[in-house]
């Protein structure tokens, strides 16, 4: 996959054994050492002048996509509870379903198991369905 890595880009990243954290890549110099390439990240909700994190490139998820207005209008953005009700309904077709885990502003990685247990374990509150 081809990435246009840039300052301000929304990413998921891990710190130690943490779940996915949400942040934006910061403008500045990357660092490389014997462990890997590290990029500075401003965690969402924290003033980057006060605190930022360094994450190794292999611990950064770079494929975030913004939730678009049409996704909200056509009810493609669902809470996890709404999505669980949908996958347990007669309208659910596993063979053609496409969905991604979302924080309500961006969507990130695909739903890999269409089960309530898997969905409830995800660190975000929403699911975005494909067309």
Fill in the keyword field for this structure:
131 residues; SH3 type barrels; 2 domains; six-stranded antiparallel β-sheet; five-stranded antiparallel β-sheet; 3 helices; 11 strands
Number of helices: 3
Oligomer state equals single chain
- What proportion of the residues is helical, as a percent range? 10-25%
Question: Can you tell me the overall shape?
Answer: elongated
What distance lies between the first and last C-alpha atoms, to the nearest angstrom?
A: 22 Å
Fold topology:
Layout: E1 10-13, E2 21-25, E3 31-32, E4 37-43, E5 53-56, E6 60-61, E7 65-66, H1 69-73, E8 77-79, H2 80-87, E9 99-102, E10 106-110, H3 116-121, E11 126-129
Antiparallel strand pairs: 1-2, 1-6, 2-4, 3-4, 4-5, 7-10, 8-11, 9-10, 9-11
Describe the structure.
The mean pLDDT is 93. The protein folds into two domains: 10-61, SH3 type barrels; 65-129, no CATH class. The two termini are 22 Å apart. It has helices spanning 69-73, 80-87, 116-121, and strands at residues 10-13, 21-25, 31-32, 37-43, 53-56, 60-61, 65-66, 77-79, 99-102, 106-110, 126-129. With 131 residues, it is an alpha+beta fold.
Summary?
With 131 residues, the chain is an alpha+beta fold. It is built from three helices and eleven strands, in the order βββββββαβαββαβ. The strands form two sheets. Strands 1, 2, 3, 4, 5 and 6 form a six-stranded antiparallel beta sheet that branches. A five-stranded antiparallel beta sheet has the order 7-10-9-11-8.
